[in-house]
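Agenda item 2: pyridoxal-5'-phosphate complex prediction
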Amino acid sequence: MRSAFLPFCRPSITEDDIAAVGDVLRSGWITTGPQVAALEAAVAARTGAPHAIAATSGTALMHLTLMALGVGPGDEVVGPSMTWVSTPNMVELIGARNVFVDVDRDTLLASPEAIDAAITPRTKVVIPVHYAGAPVDLDPIRALCARRGVFLLEDAAHAIGTTYRRREIGCDGSAIFSLHPIKNITSGEGGVLTTHDADLARTVRRLRFHGLEVDAHDRAQQGRSPQAQVQQPGFKQNMADMNAVLAVRQLPRLDAIIDRRDAIVRAIHAGLADVDGILPLRDPPWPHRHARHLLVVRVDERACGMDRARFMEELKRRNIGTGIHFLASHTHAWYRQNRPEWTGTLPETEWNSARICTLPCFPDMTEDDVRDVIGAVKDALAGARAMVSGGIR
Ligand SMILES: *Cc1c(COP(=O)(O)O)cnc(C)c1O
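Presented output:
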């Protein structure tokens, strides 16, 4: 058994990255300034989006964007429950209602048909998730949103570097990326909104920083003119340069990071191909590049001889970390109590919510680490099966 604990995720940080953060700290300017501007320019260049706006988190940008779109009481927002609950939380906090759609059992992606069926005259925004870095079927979703007059906002938290039909996520429409440390590249905490909508970009920029109008002059000054006026009350969710510089450093490595993740996912899938009861996700059939943000499997209790909780415990005993991405939003305590109408209505989501388990996958994993993950899974299941066949269950 391995002696050191292998977490399911660890950010990829080089000594040069650390030195770059040190340079910012020594520069005398550590909050929003040239590094945030550089990050926004780099994300715009990478994705092909005309506007990129950085903030303290993907969640913050979700909040600001929903506000900027005028979403509020009486409005509905359509999206999967199988997502990080931060998005449904923001919908609730601005007074709107979540309308949850079920996902495909094996890709965990929301289909155009499911989204179309969930739209009502009260729907303002549709928020599909590019789950684990696999893109949803964007062309028909974009077409139906245009036809039904609702705003399409992509939750691209997992999807920096993902492509759909040869187009980079973020290059069309509006998408929110996360730079949380678990994500493929990180700024410590942070997020970036990309959009073609100049009005949306302007309003989100303003809401991000007290509601002050930020013009080109202010940005050229790397600060804000003392005369700037509040145009509407705003928040304080600007990213700091000491954070931005990390992501600025990591973005040029994104392709190498994804390639390494892809190799790890393929190796672990191959190593577990003959293991009954550990069901990988399926990649969607449309042309895409998968960002391989999460290595998610489903634990089939009958074939494994143990449920997910026990499986995770057995891996932990073998020094292998795991995670759950995600418990379906509508199964969280507050949602069960306050939005009970969703309980039992999303069968594929609920089936997966009870079985999904994230295995280790991060670029700095070694070949030995990969072998240890495969070995630990096989060893854990072999023990359980021996007990089942020996009648000790
Ligand atoms: C991480 C994540 C978010 C939120 O990103 P933060 O930067 O952590 O706020 C939103 N949606 C999904 C699917 C995520 O995984």
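Discussion summary: The first helix runs from residue 15 to 27.
Owner for follow-up: CH.
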